[in-house]
Amino acid sequence: MNTMSLWHLTGWEFAALAFAALLVGFSKTAVSGANTVSLAIFAAVLPARASTGVLLPILIAGDLLAVLTYRRHAHWPTLWRLFPAVAAGVVAGTVFLMWADDGIVRTSIGAILLLMAGVTVWRRRRADTEDDPDRVTTRAGRAKARSYGVLGGFTTMVANAGGPVMSMYLLSAGFRKLGFLGTSAFFFLIVNTSKLPFSAGLGLIDADSLLLDAALVLFVVPGALLGRWAVNRINQRLFEQLVIAATVVGGVQLLIP
Predict the structure, then answer these.
(1) pLDDT bracket for residue 1 (50, 70, 90)
(2) How much is the pLDDT for 66?
(3) Could you tell me which residues come within 8 angstroms of residue 83 by beta carbon, excluding any fewer than 6 positions away?
(4) Which of 47, 59, 111, 166 is the most exposed place for a label (fewest CB within 10 A)?
(5) Whether the predicted pLDDT of 131 surpasses 60
(6) Above 80 in pLDDT, residue 4?
(7) Shortest CA distance to 183 belongs to which of 25, 27, 22, 63?
C-alpha cells in the first residue's frame, strides 16, 4: 500500500472521512449496515484497495462500543453456526485480494454496494410478508446460515460490506431489535478482529494507516453515542430509504472510470 498517499488529504477529504467514521459509530449502535455509506466514502477519498485496510480498525472500534452497549442480548447458538461459513468466505476474499489490483477492487466495491442496496430493498419487502421466518435450528435455517455466512465473509473481507448481508439474515431469522443488535455486535467484533492478520499480510494495514485511524477513531465515539440515543427514536423506514439512496449513489460513483 502506498501509505504516503494517505497523508495528501485536503480539509474536505479529511472531513468526509471523519463523517464516515462518525457514521460507523452510529450504524453499530442504531442501524446495522448503514456503514455501507462509510465504505463508499473511504473508497472515493482513498485508493480503493488501501481504503479497506484503513477502515477496518475504525469498524473494530465501533464493534467494541456496540458490544459494550448490547452485550447482554447476543444469541450465541446463531453465532457458532455462522462462523465456519464466514471463515470460508474470508479466505475466499483474501485470495481475491491477492491478485486484484486497485481498479478491480474499486469496481468490486461499487458492484457489492449496489448488490447490498438491492438485498436491503428485498429484505424489507420480504419482512412485510413473511410470517414464519426460517429459524437457525431447522434444516432450512442451517442452510441459510451457511449461504449467508460465506457471502458475508467474502464481502466483509473484500469491501468491509458484510453488514447488509448479516442484517438480512438476522432479520429473516426472526430477531427482535435488541437481539439483532447484540448478536450483530459480537459477530462483527469477532469477524473483523480475525481479519486483521489477513489485511496486514496483504499490506493493507501498516504504521502510517494506523496513525490515520488514530485521528479518525475519535469520531466513532460520538457517532455511537448518537446511535444509542436515537435507536428508540429514529424513523427507521425513512432512514433506511436514505441509506439505500446514498449507497446506490456511492456504488455508481465507484463504477464510473
Answers:
(1) very low
(2) 94
(3) 149, 190, 191
(4) 111
(5) no
(6) no
(7) 63
Greatest extent of the chain over all pairs of C-alpha atoms, in Å? 53
Residue-wise pLDDT tens digits, 72-109: 988 898 888 888 999 999 999 889 888 888 778 778 87
Four-point Cα dihedral 26, 28, 29, 32, nearest 10: 100
Residues 6 or more apart whose CB falls under 8 angstroms from that of 154 comprise 89, 90, 92, 93, 96
Looking from the CA of 117 toward its CB, the CA atoms found within 13 Å total 21
Residue with cell 467494541: 64
Distance CA 239, CA 107 (A): 26
CB atoms within 10 A of CB 148: 22
- Tracing cell 473494530 back to the chain, one arrives at 60
Q: What's the pLDDT at 132? A: 46
Give helix then strand counts, H and E, for the chain: 11, 0
**Cβ–Cβ < 8 Å for 55, 159:** no
Which cell is 163 given? 453488514
Distance CA 257, CA 200 (A): 28
Q: What end-to-end distance do the CA atoms of the chain give, in Å?
A: 21
Taking residues 135-158, report their average pLDDT: 74
Query: Quick one: cell of 130?
Result: 413473511
Residue with the three cell numbers 500500500: 1
Mean pLDDT for the stretch of residues 211-236:
88
